[in-house]
Amino acid sequence: MLAYIVRRLVAVVVMLLVVTLVTFGIFFLVPKLTGGDPAALFAGRQADPTAIAGIRRKLGLDAPVIVQYARFIWGLVAGRDYANGADVTHCAAPCFGYSFKTEQPVWPLLTDRFPVTFSLAVGACVLWLVVGVGTGVLSALRRGSLWDRTAMTAALAGVSLPIYFTGMLALAVFTYKLHWLTVSYVPFTQNPFAWARGLLLPWIVLAFLYAAMYARLTRATMLEILGEDYIRTARAKGLAEPVVIRRHALRATMTPVLTILGLDLGALVGGAILTETTFSLQGLGQAAVRAISDQDLPVILGVTLVAAFFVIAANLVVDLLYAVVDPRVRLT
Amino acid sequence: MTDESEVFLSVRDLKVHFPTDDGLVKAVDGLSFELARGRTLGIVGESGSGKSVTSLAVMGLHGVGQYGRGRARISGEIHLDGQELTGADPDSVRRLRGREMAMIFQDPLSSLHPYYTVGTQISEAYRVHHPVTKAAARTRAVELLGRVGIPQPDRRFDDYPHQFSGGMRQRVMIAMALVNNPDLLIADEPTTALDVTVQAQILDLIRDLQQEFGSAVIVITHDLGVVAELADDILVMYAGRCVERGPAERVFYTPQHPYTWGLLGSMPRFDRERSERLTPVRGAPPSLINVPSGCAFHPRCPHADLTGGASRSTVPELREVAERHFAACHLPVADRNRIWEASR
Ligand SMILES: Nc1ncnc2c1ncn2[C@@H]1O[C@H](COP(=O)(O)OP(=O)(O)OP(=O)(O)O)[C@@H](O)[C@H]1O
Ligand code: SF4
Ligand SMILES: [Mg+2]
């Protein structure tokens, strides 16, 4: 088990290195192809050529790509100094460099934005798990009933409506018309209640989409599991049906749900762009959109790395949980 | 099955019908039999003849977990130790399940929950019916695991089903079934999924345990060989009905139904050439929605023409041809005996 975790962690580091390499490669090529100059971007509009040259030297943009990449990685691990002669700026580890656009260090930007996206994803996830799995189980147990048909129709709507549509609709109704909820981000540590209240609407909208998928998945899985031989065995023991469902059917139903959950949660942190844009939340997704349009390489790199880290970490956690749930899975 | 007072399980005119989109599936259609304590009944028949449906009906398992699908329509009477089950309240039947009557299924791997240790699963079966501590249930489970021949039962208690071989898994299932000392044990094709060598071991085990526990046992199989040494009585099922029933030695040596002849013909025998050994009953099992008229076996029966049309028009009654030996066939008994003798 421990050896497995260590091996997986090494794999995580390797994967992250590959991600940085690819991102670095792509965004190094883009300014080359479009003729943009990061140093000029950094220096501002009216800078004179000597200032631009100075900045280029200070940021190390005059070095070969490989060297720049190595310095970037080194900066992540140990921090780095940007120097142009006597003009030295220290960037502590983990150093993601400075935004070409705002000239601000990237790391604080990431730590600023990350909690927003994380809160959005985790809150929505809890909501959709409860609602989706609950609905799915009930639908399976009352197959063909009015409840089942209503829930599955709603679920179909949920999976087919795009998030910006439901988001806009929710905003229009609950915020602008009824004035019930406004969307804002208040850090959890500052005021948990305001935190939840400010994120409730995006949570509901996101959860509606995912709960719909999870309800359908749970229902289908549950029905399949209920037909399994070991469920018949459980009944043959004389267990009451609620116990059969809870102890025997539900646990087996959770396995595929868990797998999908890891993927969804990871992807959500990496890609909550639509939701954040719809609700004007200053999360990672928003930062990424802006950075891409600004060709702001350090920010793009930073966001990509954090998102990739999260996707990979979520998968690792799921794999570990999977092994805990299903004893047949061997961690080797 | 000698004395009325000894009868422990009695099934009268059992019918289990399933409404489906294609029509009413008459999986079991008027089945009756009796079983005394300490005796073994072998139910034999081809795939789809209604053997499992019958055993699930006795266990009361058709009613639970249908979840919106067409429910089984069950009629007739099932008396277990004097208590009527088909009309009983489902919860009281549930309380009998696992305690008074237990069941072993065909495929032990899929019948055990993959996520729980075998010990947990056996303990659970015990604790449903006994308000005991975990530790006490564990002791009991380990005792049973040892009794069914699993080496180092205390250590294996904590293993998962996938860590056992097929035969060992079936032993686990047997331990689970016997943990509450049931008076009735139903084994539904307990050896079909196992290797031939393991099959014999499991059958031996069932026989030993029956002698020890004194339960009534129903062994279901499509292979007469399986019940040859195990069963006191044999019931041959065809298309949801009993076509022949009687003491095992009579059914084996003087079978009275052409379908039984076919089944016996398909048994491996030492005194025959290998090439003629396996001659299964020709033709396919009948539809249970449109059961053939008259004798359901007539489309496949080589002797149907000898009955002057009765085979096609009239359902043959189950008639006693010798003491406690019943068969449902229009052929005169003398003709049957002649044909059977000639075929050997
Ligand atoms: N829930 C159900 N709904 C509809 N038909 C059913 C249902 N359960 C069983 N049947 C049908 O009843 C018939 C008898 O099934 P059963 O499982 O008792 O056969 P069997 O004798 O046990 O055969 P096998 O040797 O294959 O186990 C089959 O044709 C089967 O399709
Ligand atoms: S009644 Fe007729 S068809 Fe049926 S088994 Fe007897 S001879 Fe064959
Ligand atoms: Mg069967």
UniProtKB/TrEMBL annotation, chain A:
Superkingdom assignment:
Bacteria
Q: Which UniProt keywords apply?
A: Cell membrane, Membrane, Transmembrane, Transmembrane helix, Transport
Give the stretches traversing the membrane: 9-30, 116-141, 153-174, 194-215, 255-274, 299-325
Ranges where the ABC transmembrane type-1 domain occurs: 114-322
What topology in the membrane does the UniProt record assign? Answer: Multi-pass membrane protein
Q: Where in the cell is it found?
A: Cell membrane
Looking at the keywords, is tRNA-binding present? no
Say which family it is in. Belongs to the binding-protein-dependent transport system permease family.
Its recorded name reads ABC transporter permease
Q: Which organism is it from?
A: Streptantibioticus ferralitis
TrEMBL record, chain B:
Identify its protein family. Belongs to the ABC transporter superfamily.
Subcellular localization, per the record? Cell membrane
Q: A Gene Ontology molecular-function term?
A: ATP binding
Entry annotated with the keyword Zinc: no
Q: How does it sit in the membrane?
A: Peripheral membrane protein
Q: By what name is this protein known?
A: ABC transporter ATP-binding protein
- Name the predominant localization: membrane
Looking at the record, the residues that make up the ABC transporter domain are 11-264
- Keywords of the record: ATP-binding, Cell membrane, Membrane, Nucleotide-binding, Transport
Instruction: Record the organism.
Output: Streptantibioticus ferralitis
